[in-house]
Amino acid sequence: MITNTELEHKGNLYPTALISYEHDQDTISFLTKNGVRLQITVLRDNMLRLRYATNGIFEHDFSYAVDENHPHGFNKLKVEENNSHVLIHTEKFLCKVAKDDLRVGMYEHGGKTILEDELGFHWEESFEFGGNFVKMSKTSRDQENFFGLGDKPTNFNLKGKRLSMWNTDQYAYGKDTAELYKAVPFYMGLQQNIAYGIFFDNTFKTHFDFCSERRNVTSFWADGGEMNYYFIYGPQMTDVLTTYTDLTGKPELPPMWALGFHQCKWSYYPESKVKEITSKFRELNFPCDAIYLDIDYMDGFRCFTWNKEYFPDPKRMVKELEDDGFKTVVIIDPGIKIDLSYPIFKEALEKDYFCRRADGPYMRGKVWPGECYFPDFTNPEVREWWSGLYRELIGEIGVKGVWNDMNEPAVMEVPGKTFPFDVRHNYDGHHCSHRKAHNVYGMQMARATYEGVKKFNFPKRPFIITRANYSGGQRYTSTWTGDNVATWEHLWLANIQMQRLCMSGMSFAGSDIGGFAEQPSGELYTRWIQLGVFHPFCRVHSSGDHGEQEPWFFGDEVLEISKKFVELRYQLLPYLYTAFYNYVQEGQPILKPLVYFDQEDVQTHYRADEFIFGNQILVCPVQEPNVQGRRMYIPRGKWYNFWNDTLVTGGKEMWVDAPLEICPIFIKEGAVIPKYPVQQYVDELEIDQLSLDIYYKLGKENSEFYEDAHDGYEYRQNIYSLRTFKLTGKTDEIILQQHKSGKFSASYETFKLNFHGLPFEVKKVFFENEEIPLDQLQFNAEEKTMIVNKDFSELHLVG
Ligand code: MIG
User: Fold this and answer.
1) For residue 544, what pLDDT band results from cuts at 50, 70 and 90?
2) Which of 114, 246, 325, 442 is packed most tightly, with the most Cβ within 10 A?
3) Domain ranges of the chain
4) Ligand 1 touching residue 483 (CB < 6 A)
């Protein structure tokens, strides 16, 4: 038994006995004999914030992660004490603080333990840097499982893993690489059907151990800063994740074109090459919405310049691409070339916007342009300046999206591949070293980029993609998983990484389809497309030094299959857009891992091959070569095989056919799935009829369908439409009720209803409660289709 007495246990220090506590409206403050203070703030009925100060003095309260507009407020708070504990009752749970050592425990009202401190808070003084290494350990139960932490390339369930957060440029990373491009110090625990979340809002290098060092202990610690964490109670994972996403924020709706298929390579140049690629897409009728320019479009890798030999008239080119349905997205890196004849360098130098070393020299590092200085994006004035630099690119040339790379920050040819620790940062007025600012550098660059693109693209919506990020960065930008490799293992990783990012509040994410490094076989490429079309962000990208990666490069079969799947994505755009709406409105992840979908079913706790795309489509990618099918787990409930409408009952594993042209897809029974016709790019066609695929269910199921103008901000003035479909199936009847809100009116007047799985012959139809002849709705008995006015409120098909 370890007791928390002062100055014991490997140089660690611990809080001693409580001498007093007090509470104001929402915060309970504790003081121990050895001067440790703990502040527990009730933010929501299901969320507490805990902060510790080892000598009684808190840091100035500041966070890049927390959304300043996050909802907070609670219904109940009662504080009382008994002999051993101070008890904090919220409406949803109970928090106990031990009087003799400040250890904290969280309990359900019924008495069940949610999470208890093991050693609890402890620390070690840092002689070298000042401050402390701050540490926390929690007791873990045998059946407990862990999920979250952003982009980590490891098994989905984190039990048994030790990982850390230090944004790193990891070219061709592998399974279990501990640190990648993003720092998302948020995870969820799940035990006995009780889920909770921990968000450790500390931007120093942070560490997480999930029963790796000791079987029954979970711990997290940081190399500096405060022990400052949020505890979120579920008991459902949905409650935890939406509360976390409320706290750290949600993005605005992306323009719909950003959800189309995107083509990228390092690098397409000159202009004729770009046009050759885009023309080929159109010639082959292969849908595509965006083309990317990598670093070679610049003049000597100088940001915000163009190589005029390759791109003599960017404005004309961008316009011509746009006329052909392509949005242009360009890369912008943080390194600014040291070159006094380069105005941006000169200006930043004059205004003192570059990062400096501890003793005053500029932070100098080699990246693509050669020797560079780096803007301090943690300085609000620098962000403002940086956002202004997009005036020409976005406002005049007409580029529609910006891709921020190398912002971990990455530096070539130096140990650690980044800035040294001593580099100074403004940190929005809380001056600090790189140890503290490293993990937010990329986030603040993307934030400045977002502000700029938004300003100059207004009234259209901005599109930003970043490689590095920190919790909360989802408010500004989408992301991709960096320099992966064209291997089957990386396909497996991409599937997990995207589910994990979705579980970490960062749903707008995708992998480099086909793999960035090396070259995929046609088969791997096809399987990757089949997965990628179900990821929130869908882009083919490759380094190009091992050959081409356009969909036509691998021969006709691969082209045909890839096209079929990309077309499916375009058909499903209204469904995907609705999933984005649910994400930006409510913080619901766009991909739902099975454990999130049905946490009560323990069979899901170690599964990650299968996932739910949106709310009602189950996808299971094929992740091995040479297979004709695979085993997969079907979650509980009944599901229709998308390819042949057979109905299967879940809660078990089964074999599904999956020759190269098929990726296993299932639709939840009762679902109503909206579909557009295939387009070559978003808004190519004025949609004159929308299809609804209706999957019969004996019982009830609700579906949603969100629409707006696909771009712009009118949706914020109520110009959107949100339809809820309530399906009720009986043995000889199906009832579809629609409820609509919002003022948007779509271009089409009618829905084409496609019924799947009807167990009866349709004999009668009641439209708005009146029987009408079947042919009045153009009923097709064979195809089970009919046409109805889009604003119908109730429809009965009777057998
Ligand atoms: O050092 O801009 O992850 O997507 O193509 C490599 C060139 C820099 C890394 C990015 C990759 C991009 C590449 N960049």
Assistant:
1) confident
2) 442
3) 4-141+194-234, 294-311+327-476, 591-668, 686-798
4) yes
